[in-house]
UniProtKB/TrEMBL annotation, chain A:
InterPro entries: Cyt_c_assembly, Cyt_c_biogenesis_CcsA, Cyt_c_biogenesis_CcsA/CcmC. It is found in: Membrane. The keyword Zinc does not apply. The chain crosses the membrane at residues 14-35, 69-89, 101-121, 133-152, 164-192, 225-243, 258-273, 285-305. It is a multi-pass membrane protein. Residues 100-310 form the Cytochrome c assembly protein domain. It comes from the Bacteria. This is C-type cytochrome biogenesis protein CcsB. It holds the Pfam family Cytochrom_C_asm. Keywords: Cytochrome c-type biogenesis, Membrane, Transmembrane, Transmembrane helix.
TrEMBL record, chain B:
The keyword Transmembrane applies. It is found in: Membrane. Residues 34-503 form the ResB-like domain. The keyword Aminoacyl-tRNA synthetase does not apply. This is Cytochrome c biogenesis protein ResB. Keywords: Cytochrome c-type biogenesis, Membrane, Transmembrane, Transmembrane helix. The chain crosses the membrane at residues 36-54, 91-112, 190-211, 456-475. It comes from the Bacteria. InterPro entries: Cyt_c_bgen_Ccs1/CcsB/ResB, ResB-like_domain.
Length: 315, 543
């Protein structure tokens, strides 16, 4: 069963279209930041006070032009996510299997999950549109990098990957990764925002002052991490179950397994840090950022450089 | 630090054992603090890192040997630090054991407390309810007791556990209500953490009582489960080698199938298994599809080819069907390498015969070099180098079965006597008149026999871990308090209501919704009470 080339080509076209849409969305989000007025200074302290009000206060002080750009940005993001989903669907139809059998497909799917997770958040809480530029920026970078360096033509799977566990294990890994992606960016922005707030001179404007409030960013980071953690836990367990039938042992400290474990432990540390005095706020946010770094390292370094059983993912 | 913190000497100090116990307690507290847990989690993550950056013996002994060859000065130092056996090293064990001691010390007291809380009534309302971040006042025209009835009822409908007490606070005129729900959050937390302990125990059990053996089996041959038969095996310290499950396996047929682009699409092996001497049962195993027989598993982990040769000596003696597995050096084309050693062909120990070579399932010769272009055996060819002399097999130093001992060649005890590229049926004649023919090939499968008694236990722990995690992260723990305040002048009731919530950032809107709903119900009840009273009391009032 050889891949259907015309569908595969269509998939590649959708990929280009998605990158283009995301790029335009990025421009729109930048315009939103540029036209936005500096929001009224938050009176709340970081991490304290009733949650929910901090982020929702923004739209009121926003000039209509900025609002419009924000709406355009989110609209384009959703459109991009649709064509992005079409990339996966046509690829899957071309090869007649789930479209996550190699790094190109895996990476593309992770970015899609991140975009969808962000879009859901930003539709529900319009204040989060202010971080759009900071999400779409990495998204465009990641897509271009994936397209340039990881691209793999549509091809059938090697024998070891032909199992329904591919659907279970890899799907949950993609979901977890995509959600952690948004979480890590929120924590990164939180750190920038906190630093900015500490240094800000009254009346000075900067792009960072238009970000959602520190408390809001911290909350987004935590909530997404809480959502992602059980999914990632499940992905690791499912991977172990698959490894038991594919490789003859459920855990063998293969590099990919090792780094997935490291990431899991780091996220557990993050969740602990969030509830431990002395670790709340910036230290916890750093832990979350380290978690994302580990996830990215796990994808790039382990697949491209080290050799392990997971290496047949293909580049 | 602990020592410096000691109180001044002037006070009569505790006796030495008491002080020792105090110090111990202090360290215990420190170990079981959440802060320590975070640090230990970090250490655990950090400790795992070298295990993925340096070659590990548990994964590939060859890579470690290669590393030693490439870094002759550094490698022994790293080795002394267990950096090639990270996951079985004492320092890795130290980190996770400390973490688990900390975990148990942290979780057990919590479990006891939770067990008590499950049976106890929700705690008394804090004295100053309005100081809680989510709090407010509700006014009602109902008398205090009835208003509190309404609150209690509404909370019960929302599946709170509710207790009503008479208030002892100064200025309070009536009772108070404490309500709590979401006990499952704490149950989930405990289940999660205790499952981690169970998981570790399962892993340890598997390591102690588990074993694993690998063997290359050519079609038509078989093996029985015993350590002597395996090419390589590893066993836990508590495995009794006389006590392995009595299972024998015969490989009847092996099939590899490929896509058009030569991606392997499936490997399957028809095997027959059963006790020694039994007829055995037939089954088929393959990639992702091992054979499981109570506690034991049998896998196909790879495959390859065993070329067969025939040797005719100058005196006419003939050896046919000499076959030996060649190991694939390239998984996509199955180009393979190996060696055939014939210590008994000659008359003495210095005219032994051997060949080392390269097998191509589909061979192409370019410029005298044989390469393979297809993993399927469409045009099998070998490139062999023949040696005569002393193989060194009885020298006491173990040799690889897949290559000749290079020191014997360097030393000149093994002499190169010929080389050839052969297709099936072709032969090469050596200077002394010996003829070596390439007669064909057989397929072999790499089989693995695994026994891990901890495996199901680990799976169970992982599942309960996940269940606990979901409970811990999804359930909200909420406490709601209501108290009747000082009577207001107009005969109505002022209720102070407050809530405490763990595990969600959305406490403010949720509290607002709750107090809105309570207010609505109170108002509705007050209305119906008024209409009831007006029905019976209107005449006297109006008069
Ligand atoms: C193998 C190591 C451990 C892992 C993977 C782990 C994981 C977790 C996770 C994922 C949470 C959820 C946090 C949340 O509700 O947001 C949690 C909560 C908690 N863990 Fe651990 N933990 C470990 C060890 C420990 C240790 C050693 C302690 C005690 C010193 C501890 C005490 C707690 C406590 C008290 C909570 C509840 C926090 C809260 O609800 O506010 N854990 N743990």
């Amino acid at each position: 069963m050889s891949p259907d080339q015309s569908l595969a080509d269509l998939s590649d076209t959708f990929f280009t279209v998605s990158v283009a849409l995301y790029s335009v969305a990025l421009v729109a989000f930048c315009a939103q930041l540029a036209f936005g007025r500096r929001p009224v200074r938050e009176r709340e302290l970081v991490g304290a006070g009733p949650a929910g009000s901090a982020t929702d206060s923004h739209p009121d002080v926003e000039p209509p032009a900025a609002n419009r750009w924000g709406a355009i940005g989110i609209g384009l993001t959703i459109l991009g996510a649709l064509t992005h989903a079409a990339v996966m669907i046509t690829r899957g139809m071309a090869v007649d299997r789930l479209p996550w059998g190699n790094m190109y497909e895996f990476g593309t799917a992770v970015v899609l999950v991140a975009v969808v997770a962000y879009a859901v958040l930003a539709v529900r809480a319009p204040a989060l549109r202010h971080m759009g530029a900071f999400v779409l920026g990495p998204v465009v970078l990641a897509m271009v990098g994936i397209g340039l360096f990881l691209y793999a033509p549509a091809a059938p799977l090697v024998a070891a990957l032909r199992s329904y566990w591919l659907a279970i294990h890899v799907t949950s890994a993609i979901l977890g990764f995509g959600i952690f992606f948004v979480s890590g960016i929120a924590s990164l922005l939180y750190l920038l925002r906190v630093r900015h707030d500490a240094r800000a001179v009254e009346g000075e404007t900067s792009i960072l002052s238009r970000l959602p409030s520190a408390a809001g960013l911290d909350r987004v980071a935590h909530r997404t991490a809480i959502f992602g953690f059980p999914i990632w836990t499940f992905a690791v367990i499912a991977g172990a179950i698959w490894a038991e039938s594919a490789w003859g042992r459920f855990w063998g400290w293969d590099p990919k397994e090792t780094w997935s474990f490291v990431a899991w432990v780091v996220y557990a540390a993050y969740l602990h840090a969030r509830t431990t005095a002395g670790w709340r706020g910036r230290p916890a946010a750093w832990v979350n950022v380290v978690g994302l770094a580990v996830m990215v390292f796990n994808l790039l370094f382990v697949n491209l450089v080290s050799t392990g059983l997971h290496s047949y993912g293909g580049v | 630090m602990t020592v410096l913190d000691r109180p001044a000497v002037s006070a009569p100090g505790p006796s030495a054992p008491r002080r020792g116990a105090g110090l111990l307690l202090q360290w215990w507290r420190r170990l079981t603090a959440m802060r320590t847990a975070i640090i230990l989690l970090f250490l655990l993550a950090l400790a795992a890192v070298p295990g993925s950056l340096l070659p590990q013996r548990s994964l590939s002994q060859n890579n470690v040997t290669q590393y030693f060859a490439d870094n002759p000065t550094l490698a022994p130092i790293l080795d002394r630090l267990y950096l090639f056996d990270v996951f079985s090293s004492p320092w890795f064990a130290a980190v996770y054991l400390l973490l688990f001691v900390s975990l148990i010390g942290c979780v057990l007291p919590r479990a006891l407390e939770h067990a008590r809380a499950l049976r106890a009534a929700p705690p008394r309302a804090p004295r100053h309810l309005l100081r809680l971040p989510d709090s407010g006042e509700l006014r009602s025209t109902l008398p205090p007791a009835e208003a509190l009835d309404v609150v209690e009822e509404e909370l019960r409908v929302r599946r709170f556990r509710v207790v009503r007490r008479s208030a002892d606070t100064a200025g309070a005129s009536g009772g108070e209500v404490s309500a709590e729900k979401g006990y499952l959050k704490e149950t989930g937390n405990l289940l999660f953490h205790l499952s981690l302990v169970a998981l570790l125990l399962g892993l340890a059990g598997g390591k102690l009582w588990g074993y694993e053996g690998s063997i290359l089996v050519t079609e038509g041959q078989g093996f029985c489960n015993s350590f002597q038969q395996y090419d390589t095996y590893s066993a836990g310290p508590l495995v009794d080698s006389g006590d392995l499950s009595p299972v024998c396996v015969d490989l009847e047929d092996f099939r590899a199938e490929y896509e058009e682009d030569l991606t392997a699409s499936s490997f399957t092996a028809d095997i027959r298994y059963g006790g020694p001497g039994e007829e055995g049962r037939a089954t088929t195993i393959g990639v992702n599809d091992p054979l499981r027989i109570d506690g034991d598993r049998i896998y196909v982990t790879g495959h390859g080819f065993s070329p067969t040769f025939a040797v005719t000596l100058p005196d006419g003696r003939e050896y046919t069907d000499l076959s030996v597995p060649f190991l694939p050096s390239d998984q996509t084309t199955l180009a393979s390498q190996g060696a055939l050693k014939l210590p008994d062909v000659g008359t003495g120990s210095d005219d032994q015969l051997a060949l080392e070579g390269f097998f191509a399932p589909t061979g192409v010769v370019q410029g005298g070099i044989l390469t393979s272009i297809d993993p399927r055996p469409l045009d099998p060819q070998v490139a062999i180098v023949l040696y005569e002399g002393y193989l060194g097999l009885d020298s006491g130093i173990p040799q690889s079965v897949y290559s000749l001992d290079a020191t014997q060649i360097d030393r000149g005890s093994l002499e190169r006597v010929g080389a050839a590229n052969l297709e099936v049926g072709e032969s090469v004649e050596l200077p002394d008149g010996t003829s070596v023919a390439f007669t064909g090939f057989r397929e072999f499968a790499a089989l693995q026999f695994s026994h891990d008694p901890g495996q199901l236990w680990v799976l169970g722990s992982a599942v309960s871990l996940l269940v606990g995690l979901l409970g811990m992260l999804l359930v909200r723990r909420e406490r709601v308090f209501a108290r009747v305040g000082a009577p207001s002048g107009d005969g109505g009731t002022v209720l102070t209501v407050a809530s405490l919530m763990r595990g969600s950032g959305e406490s403010a809107p949720r509290f607002a919704a709750l107090s809105d709903e309570l207010g609505t119900v109170l108002a509705a009840r007050a209305d119906s009470a008024r209409s009831r009273t007006s029905a019976s009391e209107v005449p006297p009032r109006e008069s």
